Amino acid sequence: MKKFGDLIMILDLHRQGLKVSAIARQAGVDRKTVRKYIARGLEPPCYGPRQPRSSLVDDFSDYLRTRLATYPGLTASRLMREIKDRGYTGGYSTVRDVVRSLRPPGGGKPFAVRFETPPGQQAQVDFAQFQVRFTSEPDRVQIVWLFSMVLGSSRHLWGRFALRQTMDIVLACHRSAFEAIGGVPREILYDRMKTAVIGEGEDGRIVYNATLAEFAHHYGFLPKACRAYRPETKGKVERPFRYIREDFFLGGTFRDMADLNQQFAHWLATVANIRLHATTERVVSEAFAEERPTLQALPLIAFSAVLKLERRISHEGMVSIAGNLYSVPDTTRRRIVEVHSLADEIQIFEAGQLIARHPHLEGRRQRSLLSGHRVPNRRADEIPIPHGFSGELVTSRPLAIYEAVGKSLASGMSI
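Now predict its structure.
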């Protein structure tokens, strides 16, 4: 007996008065089976346990279990890519179901209301903290910050890891993001990070950082702060942080900050920005191709905010800026110099004259020594006379002459 419908047919033929042998011939079963189900009545048949079918993912179950035990937040799509590199040839749905069964249970969160903006209207910006142990410094856990910008309509994602959240880095990341997407959205939504929002005025209005406000005016976008204690109002940039952490960062190996950003850029181009977005149900790159023409054009001249500082030159000919050291030329005469900190470089001035330009250093306790700032093994007779030297002009002579004069004086000879 294979189907419940066969039982119904046997009982119906029995009620019509057919003999057991006739019912057996018509149903195609043995007479003993007919008698058994007539005696049982409408009680449904019992089936034995189904034998489990083998699956292509079975060979990778141990790998998936180990990875999820170490990093419970890894996405099924991330694990799918990993086992494909190890020879898996099956489909995604099978991996998704297995990952769902192996993943440790997690807590739920309240549902959020989805808020959509038209193309080119809004982007969302925020920083998220990550902890990484670079292979170049395996004994130290480094805190890094991810700057992320997400376009509200297409969900196109751009980001960069940095060691700090200074205004210089914030502005440099904005500028790089605008250049990467080829335009500027009409407004940018921020969390209340200190580099964006100072606080609220007496009238309850948001007070923005003056430098950021100047930057926004230059690029033509309106800065907007999300409501206090309501991070879900910028969920389009909050959710990608979890996606980035689980699909890219967890379980990754990075040599240093440059390698981390290089791998992240590759992941953005080959995974994040070509995926089918679960909310919009569109391929991100295709949606971005439609949104890009709606962005505002980049200004002809890039913004260049200047933070002016005074710094004292150390005995090694270095000036300290934000925990890093930058060199000045050997010919520098003054001990106090003026430093201009721009979005992408450090400029050092002596008496109004530019004497050194350095790229910004990441992190702290780094040194930037420009070529030509230190001339080793300089002989005494090659030291130049400082510019503007007051007094008599002394003629430079070989050291051998002064040595001969010294010997003569020592022997009592008159010169």
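The radius of gyration is 37 Å.
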